[in-house]
Automatic annotation (TrEMBL):
It is found in: Cell membrane. This is Proline-specific permease. Pfam families: AA_permease. Its main location: membrane. GO terms for cellular component: plasma membrane. Belongs to the amino acid-polyamine-organocation (APC) superfamily. Amino acid transporter (AAT) (TC 2.A.3.1) family. It comes from the Bacteria. Keywords: Amino-acid transport, Cell membrane, Membrane, Transmembrane, Transmembrane helix, Transport. It comes from Streptomyces yokosukanensis. Residues 8-20 have a biased composition (Basic and acidic residues). Gene3D superfamilies: Amino acid/polyamine transporter I. Residues 36-469 form the Amino acid permease/ SLC12A domain. It is a multi-pass membrane protein. The keyword Cell membrane applies.
Length: 478
């Protein structure tokens, strides 16, 4: 490629980015720095930490802390890879857009629909968790709570993106404040010794009750599926790129908060809780945060924490409804989805896509009605495998983008991933290891059974779509 062609290509990319920054996709640039930062911080604080960690502690004991720390490093590598792509071209529906450009139209089709399915399934997961939290106060069937929450959150998503961002800001603020407060309370118990747990609280609980690996290293590895699920949604900032006021400044700052988010909200919180209360006191299906306050004799604290984790679940479900509408619109704009998904309301909301997704989330109500005790475990494994597909695509696209940029075929990103492409390859290998472990775990294996079926459905759908509309197989940069 000649230098003049490279200059033309660079000019075209800059023009496309300029169009995006002005809202060229039809969305309103209503999400400011304060909102994006809190969406990024709160996006990783949800059901996986508040509810799923109970099962992880019972399986791995204190070594679950190490699992979160190692997985957190991999998550940071994924986010920096995403950041490099976002600074190259910040667009809504970024994952499927990058897949079309760097892998092919079929990859974009698969990624868009799979990420949409991920958030539908995640919405079911979160509303399931929220319904479970309600039983702490009220003796009502889980499916009733799930039905009410689904309709309430659907209504919340019919507002403007600016108000959505404001709601998510305060949702996240509640979660962050609660975890920081919990850490401070645990620190006070360890140092001053107040509450019922004051006499027995000790950091030695991390290694005295059967050792740091009470069930062996193998059991710790088997928790990685649940650990990775806890981190799903950190990539949500990529979806908000099309509605950020200043994506080039806001998104890098949000991505660079990942290390301390994981260090404080996951590693720090678990260290404190497991130091105050021995890991043997925690059980699957019960939030370790609520259980910890109960063991401390702080009944009011347990109720407050239960409210916070309820907020966390509803926040994640709310984000899911936001994402699904945007992904369906991105597919429709690329002729890979029904055209009516392209329409926006006057406030910039993709009403058709959000409505369709919310209707499917009602499946969660039926799951809660049929299997109230197993609902969470059934949906969490499939959410994990579908969500990790987006991470795999991000890493592959970043590797291919960096290769082209280094050869002068594309402009260099202003936010380059450190150590890439080697760090991206390492992250890919780690994800594949987790998938293998899911195949070994009989509880998580169901998701691997569903994945080929979903792949076959997408393959046939794309073949039919391509024959009916050849434009579906053509990539056009937006």
């Amino acid at each position: 490629m000649t230098s003049s062609q490279v200059d033309q290509l660079r000019d075209g990319n800059e023009a496309a980015r300029a169009e995006d920054s002005e809202g060229g996709e039809g969305y309103q640039r209503g999400l400011g720095s304060r909102q994006i930062q809190m969406i990024a911080i709160g996006g990783a604080i949800g059901t996986g930490l508040f509810l799923g960690a109970g099962k992880g502690i019972s399986k791995a004991g204190p070594s679950l802390i190490l699992a979160y720390a190692i997985a957190g490093v991999v998550i940071f590598l994924i986010m920096r890879a995403l950041g490099e792509l976002l600074m190259y071209r910040p667009v809504s529906g970024s994952f499927s857009e990058y897949a079309r450009e760097f892998i092919g139209p079929f990859a974009g089709f698969v990624t868009g629909w799979t990420y949409w399915l991920f958030w539908v399934v995640t919405g079911i997961t979160e509303v399931t968790a929220a319904a479970a939290y309600m039983t702490y106060w009220f003796d009502i069937p889980q499916w009733v709570s799930a039905l009410v929450f689904t309709f309430v959150l659907y209504g919340a998503n019919l507002i403007s993106v600016k108000l959505f961002g404001e709601l998510e800001f305060w949702f996240s603020m509640v979660k962050v404040t609660a975890i920081v407060g919990m850490i401070l309370i645990c620190a006070g118990i360890l140092t001053i010794g107040f509450s019922d747990a004051g006499d027995t609280a000790s950091v030695s609980h991390l290694w005295d009750d059967g050792g740091f690996f009470p069930h062996g290293v193998g059991s710790t590895l088997m928790t990685l599926q649940m650990v990775m699920f806890a981190f799903l949604a950190v990539e949500l900032v990529g979806v908000t790129a099309g509605e950020s006021k200043d994506p080039k400044k806001v998104l890098p700052k949000a991505i660079n908060t990942v290390p301390w988010r994981i260090a404080v909200f996951y590693v720090g919180a678990l260290i404190m809780i497991l130091s105050v209360v021995p890991w043997t006191n925690f059980h699957p299906g019960v939030s370790p945060f609520v259980a910890a306050f109960q063991k401390m004799g702080l009944a009011a604290g347990a109720g407050i924490v239960n409210f916070v984790v309820l907020t966390a679940a509803l926040s994640s479900c709310n984000s899911g409804m936001y994402s699904t509408g945007r992904m369906l619109r991105d597919l429709a704009l690329n002729n890979q989805g029904p055209k009516f998904f392209t329409k926006l309301t006057r406030s910039g909301t993709p009403l058709a896509g959000t409505t369709f997704s919310a209707a499917l989330m009602l499946v969660g109500v039926w799951i809660n009605y049929q299997w109230p005790g197993k609902a969470f475990d059934y949906v969490v494994s499939f959410a994990t495998i579908s969500g990790m597909w987006a991470w795999i695509v991000i890493l592959i696209c970043q590797i291919r983008y960096r290769s082209k940029a280094n050869r002068g075929l594309l402009p260099q990103s202003e936010f380059r991933a450190p150590g890439a492409p080697y760090t991206s390859v390492f992250a890919l290998l780690f994800i594949f290891m987790v998938i293998v472990l899911m195949g070994i775990d009989k509880d998580a294996r169901v998701s691997l059974y569903c994945a080929p079926l979903w792949g076959a459905i997408l393959g046939v759908s794309y073949w039919v779509l391509k024959r009916r509309n050849p434009e579906a197989a053509a990539f056009r940069k937006r």
